[in-house]
Amino acid sequence: MKKFLPILIIVVAAVSLFFSQYQGNKNNVDEKEIAQIIEEEKKEPIVEYGFEIDSFAVYKDVIQPNQFLANILLKYHIPYTDIDMLAKMSRDIFDVRKIASGKKYTILCSKDSLGKAQCFIYEPNETEYVVFDMRDSISIYRGQKKVTTKIKQIEGTINSSLYQTLVEQEASPILAIEMANVYAWTIDFYSIQKGDHFNVVYEERYVDDKFIGIGKVLAANFNHYGRDYYAYRFKQDGITNYFDAEGNSLKRAFLKSPLEYGRLTSGFTMRRFHPVQKVNKPHLGTDYAAPTGTPILATGDGVVVESAYKKYNGNYVKIKHNSTYTTQYLHMSKRNAKTGQRVKQGDVIGYVGSTGLATGPHVCYRFWKHGSQVNHLKEETPPADPVKKEYLQKFTQLKDSLNQKLVKKDLVS
Questions:
Q1: 97 three-state secondary structure
Q2: What is the per-residue pLDDT for 275?
Q3: How confident is the model at residue 266 (pLDDT cuts 50, 70, 90)?
Q4: Residues 6+ apart with CB under 8 A from 236
Q5: Which of 165, 278, 279, 372 is deepest in the core (most CB within 10 A)?
Q6: Do the strands 280-283 and 239-243 form a parallel or antiparallel pair, or are they unpaired?
């Protein structure tokens, strides 16, 4: 017995060591599993459109040509009677007949074997969506995505066009339209020239870190024909306008152009070779070329005194603004204002055409002052109200802050 005792001790020790190691490994496994479970519970659910979408089977796509709500939902086991009810219930919120090809949609389906649609979400644009919730009871509502804004600054010198200069600077060319809107009363953007310089601070809008468009222009300086035109966005008495460095409103009694876009083709001159009559004669107006059908805007408030057709003028509208100023718009394809009608600045009074004595689609814009035709581009018309005295300190502080941004690049907020 004594001979086997050492062997017995070794066996017992080995068995004890094995069980202790097994228990230790088991404990380690249990701890890892528990830690993994805790970690998974800590994970934030994925939320889109207000839904925890990881609890659904998610299908994303875009509307195809000739595809309708019924085409889509029938494939996801929604009966036609329910689809018809959706269409009727949504009329006051969103007309399903306006679902357009190329627009995004998302379908949230149950995760069971049937995969029936629970929600249909349509995106009419980059920031809005419409939810058709078909779970317990039908619910239809609109939602808004979170939009973030970044402040940007850009400057450039025009070589060919403002549009091309912005493209070369890797900025959105839509900024050209926004700048034209800011300076609509002070600069005719159809007459900007090579060498003009601009500097602008503006907002870029993002959804989920994706650029969706230009926001507000906050400040700008446009050097046109050697003259600086500053613009600062400022609100007083709940109304936002643009003002120059001295606090004078950029808004005037007249827009600088009767079109929102186009190009200047023939300026006011006492001697021009007429392309149809083949003779030199005064051209007492300014021609703006644009595609047929482009809206023509009333450049100021007033009353239509003539809306007619004449051999040389074609379709035209003439507006008396006050005892001093009268404007006329020639060669329209169609008139949209009647004699005696009162119009506001920016109202559409007709559409670009080539009626009368014209070689191509354009509007000839004429401007009278005290009964004589003058070059409207050289006229300094009365401005709107300036910054009020009680707001001047606040305006100056804002202007100083924006001036610092005008000289800084790659701003991000």
A1: helix
A2: 45
A3: very low
A4: 387, 388, 391, 395
A5: 165
A6: unpaired
The tokens for 263 are: 């190009």
Report which of 88, 96, 102, 97 is spatially closest to residue 120, judged by C-alpha positions.
Answer: 96
Q: How far is the CA of 165 from the CAs of 37, 118, 134, 213, 386, in angstroms?
A: 56, 49, 50, 18, 32
CB 255 within 8 A of CB 244: no
Amino acid of residue 182: V
The answer, yes or no, to whether residue 404 has pLDDT greater than 70, is yes
For residues 198 and 220, give the distance between their C-alpha atoms in angstroms, rounded to a whole number. 7
What structural domains and CATH numbers belong to the chain?
47-144 (3.10.450.350), 148-243 (3.10.450.350), 263-378 (2.70.70.10)
**Residue 30 burial by Cβ neighbours in a 10 Å radius (0-12, 13-18, 19+):** exposed
Percent of the chain scored above 90 by pLDDT? Answer: 66
Q: What is the chain's Cα-based Rg? A: 34
Rounded mean pLDDT, 329-346: 97
How far is 9 from 378, CA to CA, in rounded Å? 114
Least confident of 3-7, 47-51, 85-89: 3-7
pLDDT beyond 90 at 377? no
pTM exceeds 0.90: no
- Check residue 384 and report its DSSP letter: -
Question: In angstroms, how far is CA 384 from the centroid of its own chain?
Answer: 27
